[in-house]
Structures are given as C-alpha cells and as structure tokens.
Amino acid sequence: MRGGQAVQLDAPTPTVGGLMSSDPILIWPDAPVADVADLLDRSGIGGVPVVDWSGYLVGVVSRMDLLRVRESDSLSADWSRLCARHIRARRPSPCRSRCRWMTPSV
Questions:
Q1: Residue 78: CB partners within 8 Å, gap ≥ 6?
Q2: Angle of helix 33-43 relative to helix 63-71, nearest 10 degrees?
Q3: I need a surface site. Which of 46, 50, 60, 74 has the fewest CB within 10 A?
Q4: Residue 58: CATH number of its domain
Q5: Is 26 within 8 Å of 51 (Cβ atoms)?
Q6: Per-residue pLDDT tens digits for 12-49
Q7: Does any domain span residue 58?
C-alpha cells in the first residue's frame, strides 16, 4: 500500500504497438512544403516521417524545420517551390535496413 491505497502490481505494461497508430501519417520526399505545413496543422502533430519510394525512412519534417524555413529570407522566398526533401532532418544511417514504413499521406 502507498498513501493508504493499494498498488496493483500486475497491471499490463503498455507496448509501443499499443500506443502507435496502425495508419501512420507519412509523406514523400517531393511533398510540397506548404502541403506538409497544412498536414501538420490539420493533424495536430509536431512532425512527420519522410519515406522514400520503397517505404524506407529518409528523414523527418518538424514544425521547427518549417519555422526555420520561414525565418530564412532566401528559403522563405522559395516557399512555393520547396519540397520535404529540401528541409527534412536526415535519418540515422542504420535505420535504412530496419525501418520500412507504409504509404505516405501526402
């Protein structure tokens, strides 16, 4: 007992599979940055994985990445021509052989 209340010791431990969505939000490298920004706003998420044509993780675009582009005079001027591949954070290289995702949302 803790603080007068019983502690349940056999409670199930949450698993990653139980917490993750079975239909993840993903984008292609050529997804326009404006579409990525809209997707993040509509979905209420802070970042989105970028996958290649084989479904492998190649990076992530976050809200912070989008803010950095907007703050940069040279990049902000090209907003309508930028794609996810231009601003994504790079993935760690060992991930390529192990992380296959699904079909992107954008």
A1: none
A2: 130
A3: 74
A4: 3.10.580.10
A5: yes
A6: 788 877 777 778 899 999 999 999 999 999 999 999 99
A7: yes
